[in-house]
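Aim 2 progress update. The chain analyzed this quarter is reproduced below.
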Amino acid sequence: MRRWMKRIGIICLIPMVLVILISILLYIPPFQNFAVRLATEYASETTGMNIRIGQIRLSFPLNLTIRDVKVITPPDTLLSLESFQVNIRPLPLLKKEVLVDAIDLRGVKANTGNLIEGMEIKGTLGKLYAKADRIDLGKEIARLNKIDLSDTAITLLMNDTTTNKDTTSTAVNWKLMLDQIDLDRVAFAMQIPGDSLRLSTYIEKAGLTDGIVDLGSARYSASQFLLSGSSLNYDGSYSDPVPGFDPAHIALNDVNIRIDSLLYGGRDISARIKKFSANDRSGLTLSSLTGDISSDSTTIQVPGLLLKTPYSEIRLLATVPWNTFDNTPSGTLHSLLTASVGKEDVFIFAGPLPKEFKQAYPQKEISLTAGIEGNLAALRLRQLKGELPGIFNLNITGEMRAVADSIRRSGKFQLNAQTGNLDFVLSMLPESERSRYNLPVMKLKGEATLQNQEYRADLLLTQGEGKVGLTAEQLRKRQVADELAEYGMVETLSYPFVGDEDYKNFALDADATKKVSVEIANPLAGDRPFLRRDIIPTLAQTVQRNLRRGVENVSLYEIGHVYLWDPNAPAIPALPGGVRPTDEQLAALDAGLPEQPDHVAGILTGLAEDDGWMGGKRPVDWSDAVEAVR
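Predicted structure tokens:
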């Protein structure tokens, strides 16, 4: 019996002895090297990569050191690591807690290549140090006492690929308490190769204090965020930056930021901006941005946001209820913007200007005031005032309804402006021409309306006893004509008469078209007795005449009236002569007339590009037409 008890005891002790023996062997360097060799050979064979680990050392109690790691996929090196050290206290592990005395990561180089679908990450990490005195695996709470990241540069390339979305989700409820985070000499860049977007930043020094990241409730906060001596570059296109401020090419340097009491958690937002300064490549200097921003479940508050440059000052005050943006808004926003813009900043945003004009421009500040109140149902512009003393003043008021509805949107605005001494504008002309012109004091009054997706304006410019009227329709026609002319097209005018031949050429139902067309009682040509409903048929006649005369490369456009007859319109009354028609008779005449909107049309034939040193001939196609009307 004793013999069997002894044997059973020995059998039970064997696993325990093996565990102890293996645990001891793990601390013996020769055994560690043997284990590393087997593991790397197996990993290399399984993944098809060349994986090398120079050294792994585990010392008592749980101090792990890894050196000289390389992961190679010929010809690229995916990962190289100089050293990684982690020191963990073992006893708290029994209570599902992790206490990390130190994590020290140095000399990392990475290039994922095509390993990650849709993106490529490459760069270097100089040093990462972290310390955590409590990581509770059960409660999902971690306190990180210190994180230091330095001498790091990371580039993210986003590829234009489509991947299947992972619809599965796992709840993440970790709460991270970040006592101190410090960044030194950290660079980050992002680019989308199939797009023109490029973003890069360099952080000379940054720090975050007393941060809390609550992933369960999506709430983030910090007592203070600091940034100094840093830069930010944004490029939205491949074109060269234009002179002056270019929103597609922003390059900020010497960026310095201090923000206290940071909070973001849904609608709960707060930030106390103590300092923000930067210099842009355009020459714009942001001396300071200060103020508070806060929000709760009902309202966004901006009690005072002040932006200063060496020459200008802008102040914003706003109260914006969140329900202002609802489909059926009930709250009312109130916003007031005041600004004083100096001459130097005006030139930065105005772009390139003649040197003489800059010298002649008055050394005065433009003052601006804008006040808005309302919501998306009805938004009122209480005032929009602008003044350059002695040069001009402008005042606009108005209201817009159904702001977010592109179909029902409507509005009405009143404009009142007056000029002063504009002689400095003449410096834009050659000196020999300036004496020929005089810019008098002028007044501009008018009203602009939006209704049924149509913009209208009625403006009156007066100077002394002289008056000039200008409507939005005239402005729009001029703009269209200028843009088509800049594209290289030539304006022409054609007779607005059409007939059976034109209907046949464009495969139109002649009988159906005639019923809604205006017929002329005494046409100039008997085969074309109707007024056009489209410009193309009559413009095509002009193009045809050019082709018959040997002009092959034709590029013509026309802006003119078309005539849309309504068969249900009342008959036009016959009025007696010799007396002025009454208002009722004039109204009856208007009711019987067809609608006569302005249309524009263009026709391109022949070659878009001729033989030349840049290439061969290319005939016009649909893309040229699209480009002309962009």
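Residues 2-25 form the longest helix (24 residues). Confidence is low (pLDDT under 50) at residues 12-27. These observations will guide the mutagenesis experiments scheduled for the next reporting period.
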